[in-house]
Amino acid sequence: MIELENQTNLNINLDLCEKILEKLTHKDIEVIICENEYIQALNKEHRGKDSATDVLSFPLEFDFDNMPLGSIIISINFVEEKAKLYKHSNDDEFTLLFIHGLLHLLGFDHEIDEGEHRLKEEELIKEFSLPDSLIIRNQ
Question: Would you say the pTM of this structure is higher than 0.85?
Fold first, then answer.
């Protein structure tokens, strides 16, 4: 189950996100949709980077069956900017960032892996019939 905190007016396909979550894990997660100012403060506090970013993932340190997997924070500003750039919907862009963040919670890390994170993203984009335009940044 997704516990959603939407601090914006962005409408998302929560049912699709739930299906993606159920495909990958039985654990619950928290998703926060925010403005750049909020995500920038988190990025500075937790990663030492004083800039906004598209998505942050915070896995919980303890892995008990009844504990959530962690939290995903997504910037509406990046959603709108990238959707316009790649000519797809805000909802499609949000879903890509959701997938990206969820894979981080599950231990994928594109900064150090051999492309497994990107391949899994591409697999999920295709499986859930998301636009091919979402794959562009993976290539």
Answer: yes
Beta bridge partners of 3: 30
Digitized pLDDT (tens) for each residue of the chain, 139 residues in all: 999 999 999 999 999 999 999 999 999 999 999 999 999 999 999 999 999 999 999 998 766 677 889 999 999 999 999 999 989 999 999 999 999 999 999 988 766 667 788 889 899 999 999 987 756 554 4
Fold that domain 2-138 belongs to in CATH: Collagenase (Catalytic Domain) (3.40.390)
CB 22 within 8 A of CB 102: no
The strand pairing partners of 58, in sequence order, are 71
Instruction: List the chain domain ranges.
Output: 2-138
Helices (DSSP H) in 25-75: which residue ranges?
Answer: 36-47
In this structure, the chain runs to a length of: 139
Q: Is 34 helix (H, G, I), strand (E, B) or coil?
A: strand
Angle between helices 90-105 and 76-86 in degrees, nearest 10: 120
Contact 8, 90 (CB under 8 A): no
